[in-house]
Structure formats: structure tokens, C-alpha cells
Write a structure and sequence with these properties.
Layout lengths: L10 E6 L1 E5 L2 E4 L3 E8 L3 E4 L5 E4 L1 E5 L10 E3 L5 E10 L9 E6 L1
Antiparallel strand pairs: 1-4, 1-8, 2-3, 4-7, 5-6, 7-10, 8-9, 9-10
Protein name: Head-tail adaptor protein
């Protein structure tokens, strides 16, 4: 397998990719609709600095999705949240779906 099959991408989130910090605070790119699978489950994850943080949701999307840490996300129900970490899950040619795991606050 090379990518998540389309039938698994049951949800749509809006991603505003974090592009850096500006004079007025965080700066974001234009919003984009991303097809994905949302798992609303609370769990402990490691943040970019290595500390443990609570993730309220995770979504899984295709690898080409642009969604760096600190990006703003609007979930299907309308709740807005921020990306803790976006983890590439590349099977390296193994018969598993390659995907991006995005952990949310």
C-alpha cells in the first residue's frame, strides 16, 4: 500500500498551517479542507519539546498533508484546536498504509 484508501477518510477538517511568528503573534497560511479520519480519544503524548501533554483528538490523513506543529485545526463538530505534533508514518514499502498522524490539543 502507498496511501490511506479513500474509504477510510470519512471526515473533513480545516487546517490553517502554522508558518511562523510575526510582529502580531503566530502567522498562519490559508485554510485548507483536508479529508481524514478523526479519532476523538484523550491520551498522553510527547510534545515537540519532549514533555508529556494531553491530546484530546488525533486525525489521520494522507502523507502529502501540510500540517506542522502549532497549526490551527477546526474539527467536523466546529471545535477549534491546535496541533501538538504531526508524525509521518511511512511504511517504507511494506504493505501498510502510509499516513500522517496529527495529534491535537
Amino acid at each position: 500500500m502507498s496511501a490511506l484508501p479513500g474509504f477510510l477518510l470519512r471526515h473533513t477538517v480545516t487546517v490553517e498551517p502554522y508558518i511562523g511568528s510575526g510582529p502580531t503573534g503566530a502567522a498562519y497560511g490559508p485554510p485548507a479542507q483536508v479529508r481524514c479520519f478523526v479519532d476523538e480519544q484523550t491520551r498522553l503524548v510527547r510534545g515537540p519539546s519532549g514533555d508529556q501533554v494531553t491530546s484530546s483528538s488525533t486525525f489521520y490523513a494522507r502523507l502529502e498533508t501540510v500540517c506542522p506543529a502549532k497549526s490551527r485545526i477546526t474539527l467536523p463538530g466546529g471545535r477549534r484546536t491546535v496541533v501538538i505534533a504531526a508524525l509521518r508514518r511511512d511504511g517504507g514499502g511494506l504493505p501498510v498504509p502510509d499516513h500522517l498522524e496529527v495529534q491535537l490539543q
